[in-house]
Amino acid sequence: MKIRRTGRLTAIAAVMTLTLAGPVHADSRMIPVAAEAAISSAPTSILANPVTAAEAPSLELEFSPIKGGMASYYGRHLAGARTASGARFDPDALTCAHRTLPFGTQLQVTNPANGETVVVTVNDRGPFHGNRVIDLSDAAAEEIGILRKGSGVVELAVLSN
């Protein structure tokens, strides 16, 4: 494992790495001996001044809009059934069915009526009903507020890598 950053992030990564391996003291602190030595020998400026959010790398996600339309959701009666990807359908997971997007694609689904948004993962094919563009799991439909109505207009965007 290579650590490419220098300064406080390197020391913190080294301490975190040492925490995951090495002998452990018998007491309840559960700090590896090597990590304890690294912590005690680390410059006090590193320990006293943790990395702030402003110094941490940005984790903003970028989405590319694609064609939206009418969304519906799977019923709970399909729980445990195999999806086209081979996974078992879990109504409580944030997943969806799309006709063409590759399995594993992450989509941001937005209900323009209320502004609610959810990120789901494509793990099935469909919907094969009328003009619908996506089938959501029960949990995803509830997150954006279309569970009670049964369907609703949504905007879609693919997570860009």
Automatic annotation (TrEMBL):
GO process terms (BP): cell wall organization; peptidoglycan metabolic process
The keyword Cytoplasm is assigned to this record: no
Pfam families given in the database record: DPBB_1
Major enzyme class: lyase
CDD domains: DPBB_RlpA-like (cd22268)
Signal peptide interval: 1-26
GO terms of molecular function: lytic endotransglycosylase activity
Tagged with keyword Cell inner membrane: no
Enzyme Commission code: 4.2.2.-
InterPro entries xrefs: RlpA (IPR034718), RlpA-like_DPBB (IPR009009), RlpA-like_sf (IPR036908), RplA (IPR012997)
Lineage top rank: taxon: Bacteria
Record domain RlpA-like protein double-psi beta-barrel: where: 68-154
Coiled-coil stretches: none
Keywords, alphabetical: Cell wall biogenesis/degradation, Lyase, Signal
HAMAP family: RlpA
Entry's family note: Belongs to the RlpA family.
Described purpose of this protein according to its UniProt entry: Lytic transglycosylase with a strong preference for naked glycan strands that lack stem peptides.
Designated name of the protein: Endolytic peptidoglycan transglycosylase RlpA
Organism encoding this protein: Novosphingobium barchaimii LL02
